[in-house]
User: What shape does this take?
Amino acid sequence: MDKNDRIYGLGETLGTLNKRGKKYRFYSTDDPMHTPEKEALYGTHPFMIVDGKNTFGLFIDFPAELIFDIGYENINTLKITVTGKNFDLYIFENENKNSIIEEFLKLTGTPFLPPKWAFGFQQCRWSYPDKESVNNIADNFRKREIPCDAIYLDIDYMENYKVFTVDNNKFPDFPQFARDIMKRGFKLVPIIDPGVKIEDGYNVCDEGVKNGYFCKDKDGKDYVTAVWPGLTYFPDFLNSTVRNWWGNLYKDFNDIGIRAFWNDMNEPAIFYTPDSLKEVSDILKQNSGNTDLGIEAFTAKDKMLTMANNRNDYKSFYQKDESGNIINHDDVHNLYGFNMARGTAEGLMNLDPEKRYFLLSRSSYIGQQRFSYIWMGDNFSWWDHMQVHFRMLQSLNMCGFFYTGPDIGGFGGNSSPELVIRWMQLGAFTPLYRNHSAIGTRNQEPWVYDEESNDILKNIIRLRYAFMPYAYSEFKKSTENLSPFIKPLGFVFETDRAKDAEDQYMYGDSLMVAPVYTPNARGRYVHLPEVKWLKWTASKFEDRNMTVYDSGDYFIDANLNEIPLFIKENSLIVLENPKQYTGEKETENLYITGLVTEESEFTFYDDDGESTGYKNGEYYKINIKISKTETEFDVNVEIDDTEEYPCTIKNIFFEIYDETGKKYTMETKID
Ligand code: GLC
Assistant: This one.
């Protein structure tokens, strides 16, 4: 590497946005302890961009272990180790980083458009284990008028953690319960894990065994591991027959209208195997009665710790490809989650081709953006993990995962109200806006702290909903243009200073977000590259006081209830009155704002938000153009709709600033 080269990409990895100075390993792993030195996480995204003396992109399509040493062993050496021969290497020769991404996405596939509600707020916890607790969460949101679109069901909704079952004691008449919750504007999002409990008479296990759908051991017997339900089998998703079978298991959920799921533990996570458990218990047995263990205690502890997700176990089972070839799992390890999500997605599309589905996966591989979204796995309620959040968000977007996000507020550990508030502000400008926390930790729902925190959080979530027309339009555009929805500043402005500002990013093409991510802060330094910016220290949709800034570096005040946002010169944002949930009512009024010194344009996009009809032209657009004249502004609004799919907007209100900071208000009625 040249001294000044910057290395971008590598998706779901820890470390800085410029990946120099660290080693990264792609071997999809369930590791919930995201400390800085960790090399591997849940996903495999070996696409990177070298930006510098010789700019180019590189992608290695290889489903087994890969190691990227980027100036870790030797400061200026980039060394990539591919642990096998069966790989494809792609080099993208292009001086322009955004064009490299476009070419890469032409090769690996277009991110798909989620249902519109996916841009609302989503509440999760491990767990809301029964009907009463889910209803209680729903009641609180509606009673307190805090917008929310989804409530998640974690593993406890199942009967003994058996996938595709529901515990009837905890959820009596589940279909009716689900319909009632959905009628109130909440999507229910059940978790589905790959491990199938070994139990006679359990249909998923019986069908899998009978048809030979599970991964095999070296003797051709169904391979036994253990996850939440105890002893389990893993479906062999490499095979399309197995994927079709699996996809169809979603039918009962689909029939009651549930079209949203999260696929977890699909690295696949292994708690132990009968063999590895035996080794540990043998050590303990040999020493039973001996309280003076010494080094044996150390060995036993080590064995315990390495029992889960052990590489030897991944090497001990086999999968079968389409042509019937037997393949050691280790050689295709990084594709397990990809193929599970693919089976799920294809199933959901078959079950109801007219309706969009929503699918999060924990494990992923390049190309998965075509059929699932991902979340970033088990982070902690640590301030440091807010930095992981916004860096990974930018890196994952480069790799095609436009719609993603972490567990807001942190999954493990206990959170303080201040941490949750700052994190919820950052999350409000992240495509996946899901608050999630682990069992045994402090609750993180917006109302669990004090009244002040409740009010701040309510206003942040309402602000998120005000941005709905902007986020949805810009996201649609990003999928059409194959251009990440989230971009680092250094992908828009070519200065060193902009490239180094890793803690600010573009959310769509008009808005720059500069989150506060340190405790007890009352503001932060912000870099404003090259053009003028319209600053909004935003706390509430209704309070829209904006100030014009020249390019430069500034300390921007931001009280606990405020997040610094900046609208780029000659760009526009589009807002609406926040709803309680996305489908609550038709949008009639749009609010457009920006700093216009010459000319700015915005295309508002809308469709029914739920069907796949947009693929056949069932949508409309409004093209808005604002030009600065000598004394004021020319506003041009063009409706691009059809009789079958007419525009529903009635009024557009403009709040436009000139470079002196003077605000002009205008209004357009649409007949
Ligand atoms: C895993 C998931 C987490 C989930 C938990 C229980 O740790 O990453 O999101 O809550 O399992 O299902």
Summary: The radius of gyration is 25 Å. Residues 126, 154-155, 191, 264, 362, 377-378 surround alpha-D-glucopyranose (CB under 6 Å).
